[in-house]
Structure formats: C-alpha cells, structure tokens
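pls read this protein.

:::
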Amino acid sequence: MKNYIIILLLLGGFLTACDKQGKFQITGNITNADKQKIYLEQVTLSSIEPVDSAQIDQSGNFALQGTAPKDPSFFRLRLGDNFINLGIDSIEHIQINADAPTFGQNYEVSGSAVCEEMKQLTLKQIETEAAINRLKKENKSGTLSDSLYYIEAIKALNDMKKFSKTYIIRQPQSLVAYYALFQKINGGILFDPYDKEEAKLFAAVANVLNFYYPDNERTKRLYQLALEGMAVIKNSAKNDSVSDFPVENTGMIDISLPTIDGQKISLSDYAKGNITLLDFTGYELDYSPLHTMLLGELYEKYKNKGFRIYQISIDEDEHIWKNKASKFPWMCVKDDINTPNSIFTQYNIQGLPTSFLIDRSGNIIQRIDGDKDLESIISSYF
C-alpha cells in the first residue's frame, strides 16, 4: 500500500473518458417482465436523477440511452424496487440480460468491463449479507453462541474485504475501486476511513481522482473524507506512521442541513472560531436522555469559552424531532439517512451516539464513539 502514490499516476482508466459529446446506450432483454417499465437513473451525491425510461416489449426487449457524462459517473437500471448498478465512463453500448423476479441479483452484462466487475462486487455483497443474516438468525434462535456468531460474522466480513481490496489495489483509478470502497453490508460501510490500514485505501483512490478530477463533487467529498480519516487517526493514536499520504488539509466535510424552522445552517459557519462537537444522534433512541443530559452539562460548563454543539438527528418522526430540538440551546439539524450519500454515510456512522470534535480552525481532532470518554476528551481541550 505504501507504493500507491507512485502507482496511481502511472495508470489510466476511470480517468480516460469523457469530455466527448454523444450518447451511451443500454439495451437488453428482461424475461417475465410482463410489459413493465424500466428506468435509467443517474446516482449523484445527493439524489437519484431520472435519465430515460422504456416499456419492455412482449419479447422482453428494451432500449435506453443517456448523454455521456462529463466525468465518469454511476447510474442504475431500476425495475420496480430492484436495480442494477452501472458505471459509465464513455460513449458505450452496454447489454443487460436478466429475469424480472431476480433482477439485480442474477443478470448478465456485456460491453463494459467496469459494469462486469461491479456485478462481481455486487454478488459478493449479496452473498456476504446472506451469510451474516443467517448467522444472526441462528444466534437469536440459540443454536449459535454469541462468541461463534462473532467469529463467523467477522470471518465473512474479512473475506469480503479481501475480495473487494483486490479491485481497489489493482485499479485505484477506476469507477470500480470507488464502488468497492463504499460498498455496504446491512447499511454499514464495509471499509472504515478511520481505521489506520483501511484509511490508506481511501487515500489511494482519493489522491488519483484529485489529480485528474479536482473539481468533481464526488472527488471533493472522497478527498475530504480521506484527509479527515488520516487526521483523526493521527490525533487519536498520536502515531505519525500513518501519514504515508500527504495530509495538506484536515478540515471536516462541510454540512448544510435544515433546522426546525427550515433554515439551512452550515457546519463551517457555525463552528468557525469555536471548539465544536459535531454530534450524531437520535432523540427517540433509548440512550438519548442520558446523552442529552451530558451534552447539556458540558455546554453550560464551556459555552462561555467558545464551545458549540452542532447536532444531527436521524429521527424519522419530524414532530418528535422538532419538539425535542426546540428545547436545546445548541444547533439542531436533521438528516435523512435514506438518501444516497447522506451525511451519516459520508462520516461512516455505524453506531449512535458518535461525535467528532472540531478545533477552532475547522479541523477534526478526534472521533468519539459513545459517551464513555466524551466528558474527559472535551474537558482536555479547555
């Protein structure tokens, strides 16, 4: 991994394509589709954008097209609630053959090496989730002990990581590497940008994309996440050996989310010049009352010394969120974790509460999981 930076700039791929003008085409056959409508959609950082649609004919055939993107981008074919992920990096013609009942899980793709490799990653993801869910079911029924469940689940996850790493290491410049990097297992990101070794994977892909596509929004978000991960590791572990990649800027990924009155407040503006706790929480969760009490005590103790709290809630019931948030003296905003690339996903939140401490210059200086060390960590900075 230490040779990533050297290797990155010698390779081409993700990065070959796409200032061409023209259309890409997707055609194929879907059996047992019963004249259903199939949709082509582009997956952006913040939303799913419609591109084209077509009714599948009596023979199962369909044809779709879209404008070749300026930069390589992700798309998906959707049939009902099921979809097939695609990577488009040029004007190309992709063929898809599938069966409607197993659409997204059992399909053939040709005409694109990127899409073929994304399929292999998707199938491995499905296999891994099925294995872990089976283990979970056995554990809940009492036929598998907690210790064995843990061992076997970790084994399944590590096996998938090993499989996915090969795509990242072999072609860090490709759409496939980006896709592998952000794969999820039961809603949680497979690779952790705050893990010392796995952070290098994020840095590898981020560096090469930043070299070729510095103005691309997806590149900017990934690069910032990679920088943040390396910075948090250095501050938490006090270990300079993690800086195998240059960290020129350790600022947080900026956030702009609505308050209870609908006004969007950015984290960068709110945190500027202050020691700020970026707190991810859910007011309806069991731990919330004690967590809120602890935050209240810390806020009252340090607010006059420049301490701020920017709290992001995942509560689905907007009435409950507004009722709770209206009582707090700090900044309360809300994120929808069901949207593509939600803030929770970008910060790799896998448990609640999780917090990040931000210094007066806007740099993340520590990640805090849970409440155990929250008070001592915050106090140490004052």
In short: The mean pLDDT is 84. The two ends are 38 Å apart (CA to CA). Residues 113-141 form the longest helix (29 residues). Residues 278 and 310 are 5 Å apart (CA to CA).
